[in-house]
Design brief:
This protein has 2 domains: 4-173 and 354-369, Rossmann fold, CATH 3.40.50.2000; 192-347, Glycogen Phosphorylase B (Rossmann fold, 3-Layer(aba) Sandwich). It has 16 helices and 13 strands. It has helices at 13-27, 44-52, 70-88, 100-111, 134-144, 153-161, 174-182, 192-195, 217-232, 246-256, 270-279, 288-297, 311-316, 326-338, 340-346, 358-369; strands spanning 4-10, 32-38, 59-60, 92-96, 116-119, 147-150, 167-170, 203-208, 236-241, 262-265, 282-285, 301-303, 319-321. It has a 7-stranded parallel beta sheet with strand order 3-2-1-4-5-6-7, sandwiched between helices. The chain has a 6-stranded parallel beta sheet with strand order 10-9-8-11-12-13, with helices on both faces. Helix 1 (13-27) packs parallel to helix 2, helix 1 crosses helix 7 and helix 3 (70-88) crosses helix 4 (100-111). The chain is globular, with a radius of gyration of 20 Å. The two termini are 35 Å apart. Bound molecules: uridine-diphosphate-N-acetylglucosamine (UD1) and uridine-5'-diphosphate. Uridine-diphosphate-N-acetylglucosamine is lined by residues 12-14, 41-45, 64-68, 70, 73, 98-100, 133-134, 210, 212, 244-246.
Length: 382
């Protein structure tokens, strides 16, 4: 084997944000040929990330449909991957995290007997319906993968507890690598609604919410909590870039449209998002990625879920599980607004998820696996 041909498969916004730095890192090394296959599970939100990182897919399955079901995403991606793998003949397929694209990509690789590397491996809640379907996706991918790139030691322990086969590395999370290029002190927002905000005089709360297990009653409770918060507190501005899922948009616009001090905007690109997070007061979210990014920026996070597969920042004290009941969410948000001590305790920068060198550790892990590096790369320790 001359160069190691690595095919990275991804399709949603968070996968792209976390895989783009790795695809580029591998491409810059002479030992690799780095290709990427987009499933297009997301369209606009994926393309936005590709534009920011100046990347293009070598293959694009373009599978997205409005209100797509889990079965349609998985089957369309799986069928599309057949042809791509036959054409590309990769030595290794990389998948990321826990989406339906991740599962379909790993399964397709297995059907073609191509080794699989799982980036962001080993996250677990222990509840197969929460997050849904992500917990099962990552468990299934864990069974298929040959190489497991765990962000933290806790993730590695989860795999060991399940006696998952394959080689395991602790690498840190590639999102921290991505933030090295996106977060800038002199950044000027390209979104007018963000430029109009006075981050010095107003307390800006950044909100995102999209999880399937929150569809319905939990999401309504979350939106009601935000509505009440904005009506009660004249000192705040809530900025909420609303996910393009029609289910989410109906709920968010239904409850929050025209509420004073609540700014419902379209999804923003990752540079605007990371810099919004860097300048805001605190964050309320059910997103996985935001739970990893915010601690590095020293921003308190209220997680709008009942559990989290990212306990590291909860233990470090910067993230709190707020649940999905209106009153509990409201009381934790009001505590952050009114109790300076509570705010300060949560607002210290910690880096449990990485040091910005995850891509290099993953590259070395792959080289070592293929016998092109004598020494196993050293693990990341927070
Ligand atoms: C998916 C992942 C979830 C991840 C999330 C990140 C699955 C099952 N879920 O959930 O793990 O946390 O992405 O955001 O893999 N849509 C658009 N344009 C876009 C993106 C989405 O119109 O660019 C709309 C479409 O109508 C689509 C719907 O949103 O059918 C839902 O997208 P989907 O990928 O099925 O689910 P997400 O909630 O985004
Ligand atoms: N993000 C973004 N624009 C937005 C909202 C989020 O760029 O309008 C980024 C965010 O900073 C994080 C990632 O998208 O890097 C998280 O994606 P998402 O919440 O869709 O998925 P999850 O992390 O929950 O899987």
């Amino acid at each position: 084997m001359d160069k190691i041909k690595v095919l990275s498969v991804f399709g949603t916004r968070p996968e792209a944000i976390k895989m783009a730095p790795l695809v580029k890192h591998l491409a810059a090394k002479p030992e690799f040929e780095s290709l990427c296959c987009l499933t297009g599970q997301h369209r606009e939100m994926l393309d936005s990330v590709m534009d920011i990182f100046q990347l293009r897919g070598d293959y694009d399955l373009n599978i997205m449909q409005a209100r797509q079901t889990l079965s349609s995403i998985t089957s369309r991606a799986l069928l599309g991957m057949d042809e791509v793998i036959e054409q590309a003949k990769p030595d290794l397929i990389l998948v990321h995290g826990d989406t339906s694209t991740t599962f379909a990509g790993a399964l397709a690789a297995f059907y073609h007997k191509v080794p699989v590397g799982h980036v962001e491996a080993g996250l677990r809640t222990g509840d197969k319906y929460s997050p849904y379907p992500e917990e099962m996706n990552r468990k299934l991918v864990g069974s298929i993968a040959d190489l497991h790139f765990c962000p933290t030691v806790n993730n590695l322990r989860n795999l060991e507890r399940e006696a998952v086969a394959g080689t395991k590395f602790i690498t840190g999370n590639t999102v921290i690598d991505a933030m090295k290029t996106t977060v800038r002190k002199d950044f000027v927002f390209s979104v007018p609604a963000l430029n109009r905000l006075d981050f010095q005089k107003r307390r800006v709360i950044a909100v995102t919410c999209h999880r399937r297990e929150n569809y319905g009653e939990p999401m309504r409770e979350i939106m009601e909590a935000i509505r009440t918060l904005a009506l009660r507190h004249e000192e705040i501005e809530v900025v909420y870039p609303v996910h393009l899922s029609p289910v989410v948009r109906e709920c968010a616009f239904g409850i929050l449209k025209e509420v004073p001090r609540v700014h419902l905007i379209d999804p923003i690109d990752v540079e605007n998002m990371h810099n919004l997070m860097a300048r805001c007061d605190f964050i309320m979210t059910d997103s996985g990625g935001l739970q990893e990014e915010a601690p590095a920026l020293g921003k308190p996070v209220l997680v709008l879920r009942r559990e989290t597969e990212r306990p590291e920042a909860v233990e470090a004290g910067t993230v709190k599980l707020a649940g999905v009941r209106r009153d509990e969410i409201l009381s934790l948000a009001e505590e952050l607004l009114t109790d300076r001590n509570v705010y300060q305790t949560m607002a210290h920068a910690v880096n449990p998820y990485g040091d910005g060198n995850a891509c290099e550790r993953i590259a070395r892990g792959i080289l070592w696996h293929f016998g092109k590096l004598a020494e196993r790369p050293a693990d990341f320790h927070a």
